[in-house]
Specification:
Length: 230
């Protein structure tokens, strides 16, 4: 505990301005920093918002892209299950002809794509209509790999409402003509955390949309989606 206070000692040494002019200047700086911090999130909402739809009214596309959202004991978390349920409705309703599941498989004991595939198959989506991306380590990786590795040019993206706008902006920057389905979610602790996380993730997303870096793992082109769409 003593070490923690030592590391935070600089906070205790900070002195607020005593004059009204100094306080006003400090307030102006705080407001300016807040505005700058919120600009990326505002940009995401403004540019991607019009392309957020529902399962019932989203334009048809060849493929649905479902982003990973964690596992519980090897099975899709409730948030991920809701995304997969939306993809199932899209497929069964004829809105998409195949599903690309993209997630984290960086460890042998953690495999989001296979868990997602298993869930879809158990709920009626044919296995040969599901393609897995095992290197979707974050949203940008999933988007740029979908386009560069799997050849996705047009898609319906599926995620929770707090994340779908960032996914849309990044997939658009990656070269995909996309609409998004924002899946409803209970306003619980996870939802609150996700919403707050998006504010901070928006800055990283803006940089990725401008710089368009390579993903963590690129690899050779995959033909699985082409086969699934035949």
């Amino acid at each position: 505990m003593r070490g923690l206070w030592a590391r935070l000692g600089w906070i205790r040494r900070v002195r607020l301005p005593r004059s009204r002019r100094g306080q006003r200047r400090a307030f102006q700086v705080l407001v300016a920093l807040t505005v700058l911090a919120l600009l990326p999130a505002t940009w995401l909402n403004a540019t991607a918002g019009p392309r957020v739809r529902t399962v019932a009214d989203v334009p048809a596309a060849p493929v649905a892209v479902v982003f990973g959202a964690g596992l519980w004991n090897g099975e899709p978390s409730p948030y991920l299950a809701h995304r997969l349920d939306a993809a199932i409705r899209l497929y069964q309703g004829g809105r998409v002809r195949a599903v690309l599941v993209t997630g984290d498989n960086s460890r042998h004991d953690y495999d989001e794509p296979d868990a997602m595939r298993g869930y879809l198959v158990r709920h009626g989506v044919p296995a040969h209509k599901i393609v897995s991306d095992y290197a979707g380590f974050d949203t940008w990786d999933s988007c740029t790999r979908a386009h560069r590795i799997f050849g996705v040019d047009r898609a319906v993206l599926v995620s929770q409402g707090f994340h779908i706008r960032r996914a849309l902006a990044l997939c658009t920057a990656a070269g995909i003509d996309a609409y998004g389905v924002g899946v409803a979610a209970d306003h619980d602790v996870t939802w609150a955390y996700g919403g707050m996380r998006e504010i901070f993730a928006a800055g990283k997303a803006t940089a990725e949309a401008v710089l368009r870096p390579d993903p963590h793992f690129l690899g050779p082109k995959e033909k699985g989606l082409t086969a699934a769409l035949r």
